[in-house]
Amino acid sequence: MRIGFGAPVSGAWATPQSLARFAAQAEAAGYGSLWAFQRLLVPEGSAMEPVYHSVLDPMVALGYAAAVTSRVRLGVAVINMPYLSPAYLAKQAASVDVLSGGRLDLGLGLGWMPEEFAAADAVMPGRGARTAEYIEVMRHLWAGGVAEFHGEHYTIPAGRAAPLPVQRPGPPVLLGGTVPRALQRAGRLADGWITSSRADLSRIADGIEVIKAAAAGCC
Description:
Elements: E1 4-6, H1 16-28, E2 33-36, H2 58-66, E3 73-80, H3 86-99, E4 104-109, H4 114-119, H5 131-142, E5 147-150, E6 155-159, E7 173-176, H6 180-189, E8 192-194, H7 204-215
Helix pairs in contact: 2-3, 3-5, 6-7
């Protein structure tokens, strides 16, 4: 078993000194991973918990943590795909993977807050259906050589994307979600699964079985 921690990327703890010290101490103590998360906006009048009111950008925070560590894995749980184009996120992920020497775990989600979708100029309907193609575009760009992609939702003109990730064929892609459709999607498309921070731990095994079945092509 490898144990990871949420890095101090939100609230009063999210300072350069705290993040650097925490990351270095977690690595020295032998922990397996450090995790960031994404929050673009807290709507006015929202009852969202204070931990979400001020959050560093996760990819910037992980790049910063990479500079003071050399072994601990660096993960994000999660970046919401609709807020960024797949080519842009592929570039960010490759950059963090290069700067960390191949230690990035890339957790992806679909988003749920209408105000964040509006702020990101993102489209909420059909976001689940776009997931497979989104991941395909990123992996296509990470493959090296001349990349070109023409899909139903995304187009990449012929060109080269560099630098390539250190991890081959790319950083592990983890998908978040708790409903059966999301679990099945994770089994079919991803290298791993990220559950909710509010998940009922007594039901985790049920979710894993759904994912395993989907990975085996049973659903």
